Amino acid sequence: MRIVMAEDDPLLREGLALLLRAESMDVVATAGTAEEALAAIDAHEPDVAVLDVRMPPTHTDEGIVAAVEARRRRPGLAVLVLSAYVEQTFATELLTSGVAGLGYLLKERVGRVEEFMDALRRVAGGGTAIDPEVVAQLFTSSRDSRLERLSPREGDVLALMAEGMGNAAIAERLVVTEGAVHKHIRSIFAKLDLSPTDRVDRRVAAVLRYLEGVRRLA
Predict the structure, then answer these.
(1) pTM metric for this prediction
(2) Most Cβ neighbours (<10 Å): which of 102, 190, 198, 201?
C-alpha cells in the first residue's frame, strides 16, 4: 500500500511514518503542509493519503480542503483524515465529497495500533472508517425525522455501520449474535423507508441517509 502522509508536527509525522513502515506500508512521501501534500499526491499517485485536519498557514481546515481537492483531482483516492478532537463542521464538509474510501479518525486512535491499521486498510479497500466519537456526535445532531423512529439499539447498529463495520464486527462490539444484528438492520431498512426493490445497496443508503441528515446542519 502506497501512502502519502501530511502532518505539520515533525515528531508526530516521523512517528506515524515509522509506525506505517513497521506495518509493511510504503510511505512514499511525507509533508508538513497541505500544499506539499497535494504536490506529493500528484507526483506519487498513492493508494491512500493520510492528512491532518489543521495545518499551516492558518491551522484551521487546510487538511479538509486538501482532502476534498485530492479526491477531486484523483477520483477514487482513499483518504484518511486525522484530527485532535471532534470537529463536526469539518467532518460534515468532508463527508459531502462521498463516503467510499474515506476515514475520519481522532489522533488518539493512532495509539491503538490494531484499530488504526484496521481503519486504514478498510479505507484503502474502498470502505469507510469514521471514529466512534465523531459518529456519536453526528448521530446526536441529526434531525432526520426517520432516524427518530429507530430504537436505541438500532441507533447503535447504524452508528457502527457508519464507522464501516460489517455484521460480525458489530455483533462482537455489541456482544450479540450476528442473527440479532441482521434483524436490527432489516428493521433499520424498514424504518428508513429503504425498499429491497430499490436499485441501491441498502446498507450504504442507510448510512448515507443518516449522514445526509447531518449535512443539513453544516
Answers:
(1) 0.70
(2) 102
